[in-house]
Structure formats: structure tokens, C-alpha cells
Amino acid sequence: MAVTDEAIVKIKDMIVRGDLGPGDRLPREADLAERLGLSRNSLREAVKALSLIHVLDVRQGDGTYVTSLEPALLMGAMEFVVDFHRDHTVLEFLEVRRVLEPAATAMASLRMSDEDVQALRDHLAAVPAEPSVEELVQSDLEFHRMVARGSGNKVLGSLLDSLSGPTHRARVWRGMTQDNAVDRTIREHHAIVDAIASHQPDVARAAATIHVAGVEEWLRASLGSQQPTGQTPDAT
Predict the structure, then answer these.
(1) In which element (H, E) is residue 73 found?
(2) Fewest CB atoms within 10 A around its CB: which of 2, 10, 56, 205?
């Protein structure tokens, strides 16, 4: 194991054991290096690495602190993973979304209050009668965030958000090229809300599966129809 990797593991272990908690300030560099049996250089590199993924917060002139460790903060790095995978590989991310989003929607059907469901209906009602593709995509992104939050599971909500947001350009492309994409999206969103309002998790799961699978099916067909030498659409 590389020295820097060893330093990262040791700091992580301190957090996992509870020696350091969210918001805690790390000991002085010299003291921590001695405590962990590390050189100050390797410790410094580990701190830089952990700050990049939002585990640590380096405050100039103040010290280094453990962040809140909230799922939304830690999973922000997932967007980099999605952004670096293009072409056919993005289908694997859509497959993950197809597994997770129906589960979140089923959970939301059991946990969302009548007020929460009404907020979803109000959100859909605010979409213009003839929305532009960009307007529809922005509405779509927020709609799915609301449903994911409604699951009551912060980890699941953050994970879905990191998988959903970076597909913005692909959704725009779909809206511009697929027949009836706008009408289909609006219709499926309403079906999802009705399923959540019924408080029947199996029905909600099915409605979400149909919706997400439609995007995956379209992208798979679009990518498969291209010539090997052609430019594959930007699907991130």
C-alpha cells in the first residue's frame, strides 16, 4: 500500500471508530503524524485527498475539520464518475437508476404525506402548456428530486441525484429527437404521482420502472443505430 493510501486509511479509521466526528477539528499536524506513525508529508497528501472528496475541510489559518459527512456532500464525487463515462457505458448508470428509482418511489408512496403529494401535483401544474425542452428537463430533474426526498432515505436520495443530474444533456437531446417525448414525460410523471397518492408501493414501483426504462430503451436504440465511425451522442 502506498504511503499516502495508508495515511488516508488511518484517518478514515479514526472517523469510523468515532475518534473524530462530524465538525471535529483534527489535531495539530505534527501531533497527528506522530500519533498515526506517519510522515508529515504523507499526512499532508492524505488530507488533500480527503478534502477533495469532502471528508475533510481545510480552513486556511484555522485548521482542518471533519465535514458534516452528509450523504449529499460525500456523494457529490459520483458526478465526476458519471461525467467521465460516455457513450455506451452510460447505459450502465441508467441501469442502476432503473433499479434504485422505482425502489425510492415505492418508499415515497408509503412515506409522503397528502401535503407532499400535493406539492408534486403543484410542481407538475406549473409546467407550461407547451414547454420548451429545457423547461421540461428542469422540471423533470426537480420532480425526481422531490420523489427521491419523499423516500425519506437521505443516502438513496443523494445517490439518485448524483445519477440523475449529469444526464441533463441526454434528456435535452431526447426531447429534441424523440417523437412525443414531451407528452410522454408529462403523462408518465402524472402516473407516478397518482401511484404515490394511492399509497400502493407496487403500483408506484411499476410506474417509475416504466418511466426510467423508457429513457434507457431510447438511449440504447439511439446508440445502437449509429455507425461505428460516427460520433456517439453526449449522454452524460
Answers:
(1) helix 71-74
(2) 2
pLDDT for position 184: 86
CA of 235: how far to CAs of 87, 96, 168, 208, 222, in Å? 6, 15, 8, 21, 11
Could you tell me the maximum CA-CA distance found in the chain, to the nearest angstrom?
65
Length of the chain: 236
DSSP H/E element including 121: helix 114-125
Residue-level pLDDT at 232: 41
> What is the C-alpha to C-alpha distance for residues 47 and 65, in angstroms, rounded to an integer?
10
204 contacts 112 by C-beta, under 8 angstroms: no
Give the 3-state secondary structure of residue 139. Answer: helix
Q: 3-69 maps to which CATH number? A: 1.10.10.10
Which cell numbers in the block locate residue 153? 432515505
Q: Which residues pair with 56 in a beta bridge?
A: 66
Q: What was the pLDDT predicted at 223? A: 67
CA–CA separation, 24 vs 14, rounded Å? Answer: 11
Residue 89 has pLDDT above 90, yes or no: no
Cα–Cα distance, 207 to 191 (Å, whole number): 6
For the domain covering 74-224, report its CATH number. Answer: 1.20.120.530
Complete DSSP assignment for 39-53: -HHHHHHHHHHHHHT
Higher pLDDT, 114 or 163: 114
The partner residues of 64 in beta bridges, in order of sequence, read: 58
Is 236:90 a contact under the CB 8 Å cutoff? Answer: yes
Structural domain boundaries in the chain: 3-69, 74-224
Q: What residues does 57 pair with on adjacent strands?
A: 65
